Amino acid sequence: MTAKSKKKKFTLINAFQIATLAALLIYMQTAVKSGAVSKVFLAAPTDIIAEGIKIITNGTLLPHFLVSIEEILVGYGIAAVVGIGLGIIWTLFPKTEEFGNVFCSAIMAVPKVAILPLLILWFGIGFLSKVVLIFLFAVFTILYNTVTGAKQCKESYLKVARVFEASRFQTVFQVVIPSALPSIFNGLRLAAATAFTGVVFSEMQSAKAGVGYLLSEAQGLLNTPRVFFLIVLITVMSVIFVKIISLIEYAVCHKWRRV
Amino acid sequence: MPKILIKNVAKTYVDGDGNPVEAIKNIDLEIEDGEFVSIVGPSGCGKSTLLEIVAGLHSQTFGEVIIGEKPVTGTSRDIGVVFQDAALFPWKTVKKNILYGMEVAKVPKAEQESRLEKYLDLMNLKGFEDKYPSQLSGGMRQRAGIARTLIMNPKVTLMDEPFSAVDHLTRCTLQEELVRIHQKEKKTVLFITHDINEAVFLSDRVILLSPRPSVIQSEYRINAPHPRSRSDEYLVHIASKIVADISRGAVKTDNDFVI
Asked: Which of A63, B72, B164, B224 could be joined to B65 by an S-S link, Cβ 3.0–4.6 Å?
């Protein structure tokens, strides 16, 4: 992110890494094209690219892609607001944490994928059940990172606030939350990655649209190049999403962080 | 009527293993209006505990602290505290840090600005107001910390080893600045330090605390006008006397432990 990553030397290790990757791709290519490995199990890189270009240009991908993005943005957005908001409420009023902690821990302990059948019964196989699942995937990570960050506020900062007779609200909003920002962003980043797991999984299980739906459909049609392409696409999307959160953090915090 | 009256103050706290620890026992101290008093003593003797009791950050087990005519029952804007590591908020600029107390107290913006000018001047911080603490040297940070306290115009100023984290030369400069400010503003100061030369150089009176449980072991009045010279024979003599008294006190408690 900072200056140190600018000038990286290209070492022998890097050369070997590229060679290894190239060898893997060449193996995939020759093994599939020569017929040594069945097309069902593996896809040639050229076929993967061709399939990717095809579904992008013929308009197959875009509606599914947009559905997934929308589900993630809504589910994750609500999770971020609720997670941070509840974290602040817990910090402001410790009694509310005492009350709510046991419930949140309990719901957090449930493997979210196990709730999916219930979510489908309640919210159908469309947009809403996905949003709820993504929300459940993301919200607790964000909540507990906010609360932990707030608890790790330096004692000396709190003393300063007390010495100047800051009210509880002033202390929480001007001291505790700013000092918890690194931890909050950490939670947002972790949750961003799991949000993708949530959306792909739920779309694969039961959906009418979405990248996950497309993925399981491709598998059903034995279209392995498309499966590979979608896996790469989902990975790239997930990485970009996490990167966006890091960029937001950088924009908010870089001025006062030590360079 | 003394400015700070510490009457028979004692503090016993419970340590991590549940054992009561007597930190301070029976301290009586009167500090006159405008007087600069330093407290020295071996490390862990309860100097900082005493300061935090006077600041209202901790409650005492016995006794009473009276500032002006009011007993201390908690923190107050009449009592300014300068902390050891300056304890600036890293996410605020120097200006925002200095104004923090006034923001909390909701002082009108125009008055904040005019007072800010004065204290930026007084602490030689002109030109640094838009920097963040991480961009400043230790000495500059502590200047900002002192400005943040003095700008509130507290009735008494408590300083908890404010220069212990800065290098020797900076420390000397800061000491001289503190003397200059004290001569100008004639505020009552209670200064905690483990540096005997510092205490002797700055103070009207030096109080030596004994090892835990601490009582006042001796008291030294320093009748030398400011500006003082560090090599002044009289000051050097007092400093060496204090050093001798400290080792005497330490020997005494060692014997206590042997028995």
From this structure: B72
DSSP code at position A235: H
A229: which 2 tokens?
A: 């392409």
Tell me the backbone φ, ψ of residue A116, rounded to 5 degrees.
-55, -45
- Taking an 8 Å Cβ-Cβ cutoff, which residues of chain A contact chain B? 154, 156-157, 159-167, 170, 174-175, 178-179, 181, 253, 255-259
Which strands form B188-192's sheet, in the order they lie side by side? B79-82, B156-160, B188-192, B36-40, B205-209, B216-221
Q: What is the CA radius of gyration of chain A?
A: 23
What CATH number belongs to A55-256?
A: 1.10.3720.10
Give per-residue pLDDT as tens, A91-139. Answer: 999 999 999 999 999 999 999 888 889 999 999 888 999 999 999 999 9
- Spell out the domains of chain B, with CATH numbers in brackets: 1-78+156-259 (3.40.50.300), 89-153 (no CATH)
Angle between helices A224-253 and A211-220 (to 10 degrees): 160
Nearest Cβ partner for A165 among B75, B84, B90: B75
- For residue B170, count CB atoms less than 10 angstroms from its CB and return exposed for 0-12, middle for 13-18, buried for 19 or more: middle
ipTM given for this complex:
0.88
* Measured distance CA(A136)–CA(B165) in Å, rounded: 47
Q: At what angle do helices A61-92 and A211-220 cross, to 10 degrees?
A: 130
**C-alpha to C-alpha distance for B158 and B141, rounded to whole angstroms:** 17
Sketch the domain layout of chain A as residue ranges: 55-256
